[in-house]
């Protein structure tokens, strides 16, 4: 299994541009999340999904959109990039379920710079 | 807002020594998890402890949880150079038991000196 994959690894955008960060998992996990990691801030939850067709906002959703059309994919869209969105973005998935096994599997991250 | 806060922010010890990191959180939780992040990489799950557990072991890792004090500790015994990384605690406060997304602390940066 490839686990959780993210593309691209690095991206530079100009202010106002839009783009989509890709995330895919091959573990048949129902739950997927997007986090951003900033220096000294830890990880903050942007959006999450509990299954195909179901998404919800996390702690810092402004400026980002998500959709979940399949179990495998959970893309994150930046609508109009701003310098404040310069960060490292991590996608994660987890099994969830009644056995309480909520370990999250993280992708390698996308380092985004907005100039 | 950050739910968990790790302490210390940075820790430097000699190889072979034990490393202890602490995590405090604010609200009631269903479970608490610890993750490791090597420089430039994604996070890797280390251990999960549920709110009704007080202690858990996994290899050289020992985690304790004190729900009355809203705190947890991670002990790494017989440290190795490869343990150099940032360590994060993460909590869930949702009725879903954390599957919807976790709240992470800012991390402890651990350096193991050879």
Short description:
With 115 residues, chain A is an all-beta fold. Chain A has strands spanning 4-7, 10-13, 19-25, 31-38, 42-51, 54-57, 64-66, 76-78, 87-94, 104-106, 110-114.
- Fraction of residues in β-strands of chain B: over 45%
* H/E topology pattern of chain A: EEEEEEEEEEE
Query: What is the count of helical runs of chain A?
Result: 0
Strand/helix succession of chain B: EEEEEEEEEEE
Number-wise, the strands of chain B total 11
Low-pLDDT runs of 5+ residues of chain B are none
End-to-end C-alpha gap of chain B: 37 Å
Overall mean pLDDT of chain B stands at 89
Summed up, the helix count of chain B is: 0
Q: Which regions of chain A contain 5 or more consecutive residues with pLDDT less than 50?
A: none
Q: Tell me the number of strands of chain A.
A: 11
Radius of gyration of chain B: 13 Å
Distance between the first and last residues' Cα of chain A: 36 Å
Secondary structural class of chain A: mainly beta
Helix fraction of chain B by DSSP (H/I, runs of at least 4): under 10%
The major beta sheet of chain B can be summarized as:
6 strands, mixed
Query: What is the quaternary state of this protein?
Result: heterodimer
Largest sheet of chain A: 7 strands, mixed
User: What is the C-alpha radius of gyration of chain A, as a whole number of Å?
Assistant: 14 Å
**Average pLDDT of chain A:** 92
Label the structural class of chain B: mainly beta
């Amino acid at each position: 299994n490839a686990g959780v994959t993210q593309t691209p690894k690095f991206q530079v955008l100009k202010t106002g541009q839009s783009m989509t960060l890709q995330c895919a998992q091959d573990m048949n996990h129902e739950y997927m999340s997007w986090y951003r990691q900033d220096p000294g801030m830890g990880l903050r939850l942007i959006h999450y999904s509990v299954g195909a067709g179901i998404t919800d906002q996390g702690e810092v959703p402004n400026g980002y959109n998500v959709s979940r059309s399949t179990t495998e994919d959970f893309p994150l869209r930046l609508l109009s990039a701003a310098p404040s969105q310069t960060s490292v973005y991590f996608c994660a998935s987890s099994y969830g379920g009644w056995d309480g096994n909520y370990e999250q599997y993280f992708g390698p991250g996308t380092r985004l710079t907005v100039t | 807002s950050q739910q968990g806060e790790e302490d210390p922010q940075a820790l430097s010890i000699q190889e072979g020594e034990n490393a202890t990191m602490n995590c405090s959180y604010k609200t009631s939780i269903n479970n608490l998890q610890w993750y490791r992040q090597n420089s430039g990489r994604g996070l890797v799950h280390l251990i999960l402890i549920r709110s009704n557990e007080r202690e858990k072991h996994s290899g050289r890792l020992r985690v304790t949880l004190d729900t009355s004090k809203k705190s947890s500790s991670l002990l790494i015994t017989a440290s190795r150079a490869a343990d150099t990384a940032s360590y994060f605690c993460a909590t869930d406060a949702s009725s879903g038991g954390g599957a919807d997304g976790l709240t992470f602390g800012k991390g402890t940066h651990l350096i193991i000196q050879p």
